[in-house]
Structures are given as C-alpha cells and as structure tokens.
Amino acid sequence: NAGVTQTPKFRILKIGQSMTLQCAQDMNHNYMYWYRQDPGMGLKLIYYSVGAGITDKGEVPNGYNVSRSTTEDFPLRLELAAPSQTSVYFCASSYGRTGRGETNEKLFFGSGTQLSVL
Amino acid sequence: QQPVQSPQAVILREGEDAVINCSSSKALYSVHWYRQKHGEAPVFLMILLKGGEQKGHDKISASFNEKKQQSSLYLTASQLSYSGTYFCGTLRGGKLIFGQGTELSVKP
Predict the structure, then answer these.
(1) How many CB atoms lie within 10 A of CB A84?
(2) Partner residues linked to B74 by β-bridges
(3) In terms of DSSP bridges, do strands A43-51 and A31-37 run parallel, antiparallel, or are they unpaired?
(4) How do residues B39-56 score in pLDDT, each as one tens digit?
(5) Are B102 and B6 in contact (CB under 8 A)?
(6) For residue A100, what pLDDT band results from cuts at 50, 70 and 90?
(7) What burial class does residue A92 get, using C-beta atoms within 10 Å of its C-beta: 0-12 exposed, 13-18 middle, 19+ buried?
(8) How far apart are CA B1 and CA B97, in angstroms?
C-alpha cells in the first residue's frame, strides 16, 4: 500500500533553475492537491485537481504550474526558482465524493519534499 | 480567506484538557481536523459534515456549530503523544483551505 508518493524528498536549487516535483497516488482518488508549508507556518494551497485534465488555482499559485494527464499523477512545476519558494511541499489526495457540492473525504498526504532555493 | 484558529499555542501537563477553536467569516459546509507532528506530514483526525455534529476519536472529540460558523476540537486527559500542530480545514469551492494551526505541547 504505497498511498501518496512524492519525489524527491530533498532538493537544492539555484535561483532561476526549474524543476518538477512528482506526486503519484495508487488509491484511484479523484482529487489531488499541492500545498506548501513555510517553517512554523500553516499549509497554503498552491493548485488542486478534481480529476484528470482538470486543474485550478489555490491560494498561492504564482510561480508554479501543474498538469493532470492521468488520475494517478499530479506533478508540480517550478519555473525560474526564487528564494521565496524555499519551503516544504506536500501533495495530498482524496476520493472526492461530495455532499452539497463539496468534498467530504479525508486527505491522504505524501511525506513531503523539502526544497531550498539558494 | 482562511479559517482562524485560537489559541495559536498551548502548553499542557499530561492529563490536562484543552480546546482548540476554528472559526470562519463565511458559511461552513464541513470542517476537517488534522494533526501534524514535527517533521512529518499532516494526519487526518476527523471530518464534521453538518451543524450540530459531534465526533470522537479516542479522547479527542470535536463539535461543529454551523450557525456560529465555528468548530471546536476537545482534547481530554492529554497524553504526550498528543503533542503537535493541529489544523482545521474548510472548503471554498472545492478547495480545502487550512487555518494557521495551533501548536500543542504536552509536558510530563
């Protein structure tokens, strides 16, 4: 039972470099999310997806891009990395069954990617 | 707009009780509660789906007052293992938005 798998676990980037954070889930979940968490702070939603081919912005989308070509995978792309993007990134997924138009299923989180931009 | 949690931090002795509150300026349809230990990913505790609902998980329970747009998490007879940061989450158009977190420290 792999659950939500994130790679890499750690990465150091130079300013201006680009990279893709990988996220895969094997639970056939419809909903997937990307959050960032700065030291001592809460979780901020970057992007989310309610199914393959459908993505939408969260609270802090600037500087990031996502795609969802399959149900299983939801990669997060950083273009032109900046020091402000130094953070821990968490991917999460849920089944997404809804009531009153909202998800009511619990989130399963990956173990996180610690990214430093120097 | 993210939900607001209070207090921001609390320190307890083993066996003491605590209450963490989560409030929103907009209507709540459901409230999620998660706990995150240092250096780990958040872990699901419970979801409350409708006003008046109460749930329990071991000695951790929660209530949801839909009219007041708030939820409370109750930790009874706290244990060392309860230490961590607690987050409430609310839905905004399908997005799950979290509060800023409440750091709970349980001392022997």
Answers:
(1) 10
(2) B19, B61
(3) antiparallel
(4) 999 999 988 876 666 667
(5) yes
(6) low
(7) buried
(8) 8
Q: How far apart, in Å, are the Cα atoms of A30 and each of A2, A26, A53?
A: 17, 11, 11
The Cα B24–Cα B69 span in angstroms is 6
User: Which fold, B4-107?
Assistant: Immunoglobulin-like (2.60.40)
Which of A102, A108, A112 is nearest residue B30 as measured by Cβ atoms? A102
Hey, where are the domains in chain B? Answer: 4-107
**B27 to chain A nearest CA, in Å?**
13
Amino acid identity of residue A29, one-letter, is H
**In a 3-state reduction of DSSP, which class is residue A29?**
coil
pLDDT at A16: 96
Q: Rounded to 5, what percent of chain A is helix, strand, coil?
A: 5, 50, 45
Q: Would you call B2 helix, strand, or coil by DSSP?
A: coil
42-81 in chain A: CB under 8 A from chain B? 42-45, 48, 50, 56, 58-59
Q: Which domains does chain A have, with CATH numbers?
A: 4-117 (2.60.40.10)
Mutate to test the interface with A, among B28, B96, B98, B100 (most CBs of A within 10 A): B96
